[in-house]
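Predict the assembly for these two chains.
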Amino acid sequence: MSKTSYCAYLTGFISPEVKDTCSSSVECRSPPLIQFSQSSVPLHRNYILSTFCTEHNVQECLSHINQEVSSLGLPPVWTESSGSSEMNVMAVLNCMYDLIQLHHRGLRTLENMEVEQLKSSSNVDHLQRTSTQLKEQLELSKRGNTGLLERERQLHLKVKSLQNCLKNEKDEVQKLQNIIASRASQYNHEMKRKEREFTKLKERLNQLLVDKKEKKQAIDVLNNIGRADGKRSLWKTQKTEAKHEGEMYKTLLSDYDTRQREMLLENAELKKVLQQIKKEMVSILSLRKPIRKDDKHPDAGIQADSEDEEQVFDSSKESVGLFSVHAREKLTNSIRLQWRRLKSHVERLDSQASLAQMGENKTDDAISRETHEEEMDRLKLEIQPCKDFIQTQQQLLQQQLSSPCDEETTSLLSNCYMLQERERFREEWKTLEKQRNLFERERRNCTEAAIRLSHERKAFEDDRAVWLKHQFLNLSPFADLRKPQMSKSKSCFLISETESSASSAPEKLIKCRSDTTSPTPRCVPLTSASTADMHRTVCLVPEKRYVVFICTNHDMPVTNAALVVCYELFMLIFYFQINQTKWKD
Amino acid sequence: MNFSEVFKQSNQLCKVSPDGKYLATCVQYRLVVRDVSTLQILQLYTCLDQISHMDWSSDSLFILCAMYKRGLVQVWSLEQPDWHCKIDEGSIGLVSSRWSPDGRHILNTTEFHLRVTVWSLCTKAVSYIKYPKACQKGIDFSRDGCYMALAERRDCKDYVSVFVCDDWHLLRHFETETQDLAGLEWSPNGCVLAVWDSCLEYKVLLYSLDGRLLSAYSAYEWSLGVKSVTWSPNSQFLAIGSYDEKVRILNHITWKKITQFEHPSSINNTKAVVYKEVEKRTAVGSDDLSLHITIGTALYNTRSKYEICPSPVQIPVVKPDPDRANPKIGVSSLAFSSDSRYLATKNDNMASVVWVWDMQKMSLVAVLEQTSAVRCFQWDPCRPRLALCTGNTTLYLWSPAGCVSVQVPTEGGFQVQSLNWHRSGDSLMLLGKEQLCLCYMDTDQEDNIREFTATK
């Protein structure tokens, strides 16, 4: 409801007499009232002035006024008794004055009354308004109340229904549980019954199948095979049973045994670790001992004592500690003690450090900061050239990218070529070096061969001397026959040998000359081989006796002189060969 | 890496003898024995029907061929080719056949798990073990071949019987605290037997050899539980994979959980390396035409390689159907490396991913994200090296040094379905659908891998 219409309603409701005058608002209610009262008086007056007294009805008017005045309780203006028609002016005036006074009084009271009325009306208005407001409020609250009540009722209903539901559900659950339980028991029962039946059937089936004749179980083996372990099976007796039991317990025991051993090992390991920890703790604590003694700490002495004691204990324990309960306890206790000490020490250090930090915050910090700053400056300085370097590199790179064919790149390219060249030279150098090494080796081989040859020659010379001596001594025809034979055989073989070597030598020579650039070391081992052969012949290898016999059987007249000549020839060739090798070198 | 030529096989029945010298393959009803080094056929045996199972005896002297449909087992000797043995289970049927550790007895499980028949090849004697339980893993032999643990079911209760394999003497027989026992496995040292309940209940029980209950472990209740259990080769860890996509590691001293490995769909671990397989279709270029000629089928071949993914990696996850039994979720495969240093796992709802965990740091080392679901993975028996295949023509290898993928260069697109390491770790047997191929590792494989990672 809008305010204006509401107000109109109110005015209409409360004061229907002013309804027509009042248009719409409460504020314009009092002015019409005032207007009304003010306008009524002058209208009345005009009417009296205009029509009341004329020349004709003075007498009537007089009497009328007289009556009126007397009715008002004033002294009469005109008395008939006096008999004169003229009015007593004084009396009239007095009367008028009284009337005016009366009128004034009346007006004043009217005004007062009007004010009073206004006041009271506004009061009434206000009260009415407040009352309506209150009534509205009351209405509203009443409505709210009923709404709330309704809701409460509904909620109550809901709760009730839910409770019902819950109860129902609970009942249902209970019922279902009961059903399940009963079914489960029934099921279990049934299952058991079925299982029993099943077993019975099985038994029966078994029986039937066993009894059945036509298709019996059978094993058909060609020949029995031996047991895997090669033993014969034993009869089942009490003894075997006991043996089985024994074996079972044996395996169990061995298992426990191994487990115990493992645990023992583990324990030992752990103890070792403990010992080590303890030792390290002791060492740490002993390190700080002198400092603390300087500090004159109260428990320093005690600690030292205990440590000494522990040290003694420690040395004696080592091996015992693993097994003795007391030792173990002592060890753990000591470790606990040490640990506590270490902890307190660390804590103290911590607190000291924090204190020191607090106390010497400035100086320490200043120093550190200075060093830090120095370091920073230094690093910055270092960074600067690095940055420059990077920049130049980047620049160069960009330049290269932007202008691929400028001078720098060409120089770079030439550098590259130079590098390549150098690389190639280096490789060549390397190959040359390798060749040189090869040559060196070959020369060494040759010299070695020469040395060996000279040795052999010397030996040969000696041999020859001996042989010549023998020859000289055996010049007489009556000498022993066997010796010439021997020498014959030797020389005979020698000839063939020398011939072959002689035939091969020139060949070799040619070969050597043909490739002078790379002298093959092949000839060296060849010569050495030939010398070895010679050596063999010189040493009179018995297998060559066969050749000797052939020679003698052919009865060739090989005289000593001829032999000597042959030998000389051989020697010549030999020298020639040596010279050749020397020349080659 | 070199590859042999391709041989025929059926039912993926190919096994290298325990001594590593011979390779036995089944082709329909024929058994072919080859020399591993030369691949020359040494023996050829003909069975009575199509072979459904084949196994070597522990001493590599005999081969067992089972024909489940006919209820028959035939045994062949390598030393005496004319020696033969035929075991007929008759009308009682046969569902499983295996060697005893001594290689002189055959254990046949009859149909409906009526009983286990123990046949002796030494004496022709037959003995029966009644009430074997039909479950995931009901029989296990200890590593040293001394004992056999057998899950049994009597009067609706689970029992475990421990037999001495030497003379089948019943050593221990005890009831287990399980609702429905699903499997049992000896620790590699043969002293502890791990027994686990069916997936309805998370329960792992550890029994000593003498039948004492050492410990019981349960991680949670109500929801689906254990999916796979594996011992580490040094018997120190027991890894349990479960339906909640976690692997829990128990220690061998207190049998409490040391740690658990989760398989999150997003990997934020910066220390783990995530290798992602990327496939590239090869265009027939002139530069590698020669290679194509050798491969032959290169026109439609895809080349794959690994890429290293930076840290936050999202892994494709397949939501399992909640209405179906045996949901495809949880850790189904676990394998320790031979030195017990690494553990490889596979979570079923992230079937294309293999996770490798470091057992020293107890943390994730590597994640191999393949383009297709991983079929099979196996550790090198000598080195920490993992081989895996995803049913395509590529073989994948992981080692701490890195990861490689190798195309199998055979004609006709050899799809690797399964693989088996030779005991020396020098070669690898790759099994396709109807074929098999040997892959020879270079001895300087490590160097290759290093090179590979260096090029990265």
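The beta strands of chain A are 218-221. Chain A touches chain B through 40 residues (CB under 8 Å).
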